[in-house]
Amino acid sequence: MQYKINPNSIIFLDIDRKINNSTTIAYDWMTDDVIKINAKAYRLLHDIWQRKSISETDFKNYLEKDFMTQKSFQNLINDFVRRGIILEF
Amino acid sequence: MRQHLSITIDPSKKTLAEDIPEITFPPKVLFETSSEELVGYFVNYDNTINESNLLEEYKKDNGVKLVNSNSHFLLFYRNYETNYIEILIDQVGTFPVYIANDKKEIYISTKFHNIVKYLKSKNSFISIDPDGLMTYLLWNSHQTEKTIIHQGKRLPAGCKLQFSLDNPQIGNITSLIDLDSFLLEKIVPYTSIESFTKEWVKEITHIISDQLAKISNLPFGCDLSSGFDCTLVAYSLTKSTDKHFPCYSLFSEFTQGETDVNKMIRFAQRHGLDLKMLDVGEYMQFKHNMISHLNPEDPHQHNLTDAYFFLSKIAKTGAKIEFAGEGGDEIYGSRNIDKTAKFTTQYSYFNNVRYLKKDGVENLFAKRINEYALSRERFNSRKFYPLLIPPTSGVVYWAWGEKFWENDMWTMTPFVDTRLIRLARRIPAHIKGGMGEVKQTILREAPGIFNIEMFQEKEGLEDIYVNFIYNQRKLIDMVLENSVLAKLGIINKEHIYTLINNEKSILYSDELAISFYNIILMDWYFQANSINQINL
Questions:
Q1: Residue from B141, B84, B157, B75 nearest B108 by CA
Q2: Which of B34, B124, B346, B414 has the fewest CB atoms within 10 Å distance of its CB?
Q3: Which positions in chain B touch A29 (Cβ < 8 Å)?
Q4: B123 touches chain A (CB under 8 A)
Q5: What is the four-CA torsion angle of B278, B282, B288, B293, rounded to 10 degrees?
Q6: Which residue from A7, A14, A24 is facing B343, i.e. has the nearest CB?
Q7: What is the pLDDT of residues B519-531, one digit of tens each?
């Protein structure tokens, strides 16, 4: 399975770092709601966006970098997929 | 019609005061010392500013306190020793301040088209600003210094333009709004809806009393519709003054869902309001003669609208102040300010996604402008100007400030006040839902104000714009024939004609019809003024 950013749901701007300490908001079009993206989630999403896409085999890199368990990382990905912020393909 | 403020500032300028005309409201102010001059228009409503010593107030922190107070103003500060000039407006952005510059001077006007005329008089190149253009065409209001032309700027709400007379440039615009301190204020939500509602009505009445005190004996009126916002303002006015004031309402048989005349009459009767109704059915159907009233000095063609008809009628009665319910929806979303206030650029992006992709407005534009409209380049080019008030609640001034000026009228918006925003942040946490639901939940607890029949979902006015396509075909053909926007590759004329000729097409939907209306009128303005280049 590959994962990529849904460009309708999040935009990465220079002010994210300059003003908002590497946080941002994303839009959940399913519920018409805004979700705060904290610094840890921002790093993940920004990296996926920069790399265009990632695969499940890349997960371990993030686990090491952010000291996350496999389960909490998978939950984070699943949540973003459910909200349409990350697209599976 | 009152002449606009127009002032050219160059090193030879001895004083600014003589170029600042008197207006009825807010009052003109002037403070001078041997080394400084502070002139403009100023009124404070929350009694936090010593208006009799405004120069000292300004100098304490270079205007920060003034901007963060509940005041309406436009101020020009000049320091003769440093040769610096500062121009500052309030946090709502009540005054339209347009700016352009030539080599050794800066030009300021309260009328946008004066900037175009100024640039033309200097033989300056004028080009369309793509971000400013799309902001207008999609009616996506956000804080920006950009206008529809690249060479003309607008001072955003709560901002200061600073420049040296030795080298006048318009690039130094900074916000003085202290969002961080506002967000750090400790907020304790109410636990009881009843207690909150009681305080809510009391605070609105308090704010209106403060505003009435400042307008003194000037004649005033109040907007009225069948919704909750104007009606709450009108009710609070009756509790704040014994003076007689008329309530004005525009209505038409085609828009009963937005303004239900019978509900409004019953509300007016209940509270002893003097209701005056203006039938704008002709405007709602777009059956009036638009072509012969096109104004080459107004990109937005205000005088073709029902709202302008309404404004000019009220002005002719001699009224100088009109109380309005603007901001009366957004205020109920103030609990989310922590989540939203620092991310207004991202919000603007999502709104553009909604209009272009979800609503299908991309069908009106050419591929390259659709790509630009959602590009990082566009949103990265924007500066961040924070706001304490909800971004859309100041739109009435952003869109209509020029016309208020011309008609010597001032709009009073009690909901656009940080005292009320502070209170709205304390809305009981257990009230769930969107702004409309929160509003109804709170106002249901306000006994003796609203009639039960008013607690129904109101319709918008958007669907009337489809009438523009049906009834203004001559104007549409005239504009499209010589379309600047088509020549610049912004719209696809052939595709638009395909949509026009198919009444089942997406063009005949609310969102597209509004944008299409904006496109036609803006295109005509560009044609009329030979503005045919784009900075893209």
A1: B75
A2: B34
A3: 358
A4: no
A5: 30
A6: A24
A7: 999 999 999 999 9
